[in-house]
Amino acid sequence: MPHRNAPLSKTGRLRLARCVVERFQVSPTTTKRWADRYRLDGEAGMVDRSSRPHMSPRRTPTRTERRIIEVRMLRRWGPARIAALLRLNTATVHRVLVRYRLNRLAWMDRATGRVIRRYERDRPGELVHVDIKKLGNIPDGGGHKTLGRAAGRKTRSGAGYSYIHTAVDDHSRLAYSEILTDERKHTAAEFWTRAHAFFTTCGITVERVITDNGSCYKSHPWRDALTAAGITHKRTRPYRPQTNGKVERFNRPLLEDVRNGR
Predict the structure, then answer these.
(1) What global pTM score does this model have?
(2) Which residue of 32, 45, 192, 193 has the fewest CB atoms within a 10 Å radius of its CB?
(3) Nearest-angstrom CA–CA distance, 83 and 253
């Protein structure tokens, strides 16, 4: 006979077993784990926890990781060559590079070898990048890509230049471009007036604009165009085009797909 103070009788044990097996369909081990957490932490213990182990005794030592990162940044070697130099397993080197986001050379600055940290503004219109791309016009009959270098030199004189004015929203990457005949101050200011109207129709309220230190962006017409709309103007540091990199990068596919493609 069961003890008179037993929490579960035969019928109670049967109900408990059916509740766990038939209703929740979980193992007794899982049931005990969550019950123990509830007894210890109450409702707060029901949230998911990280499955990461508290200790990783077989993890690559920090000193070895630093040597891997140093070789990667100085020599731009792949995991196989680094592993051969440091006498490590290739998979170990690759895991370290992935952990520190160094597994792709495209994520490293070519000049300094430092990891490129991508950034993005929190909302559309918080920052708009503006830039001008100067392109030589293609003369009638084609240029050097069609006729060759020698023949192209004879036809290029007098063809002139075109100027692509572009504005790119930092958050959404929405872009507005126009091909204009020059990069003078009034042309740049009038372009921004139309670009601002375009972003407004898309529901974007422009707060700040960043440009390089070109003369047209230091002019009174440009300043007045931004001030009238209550927009703050920022400039990149000298010799740091990376600060305006979103619009600089946009110019590349624009050149390849639109101009060279045609």
Answers:
(1) 0.54
(2) 32
(3) 37
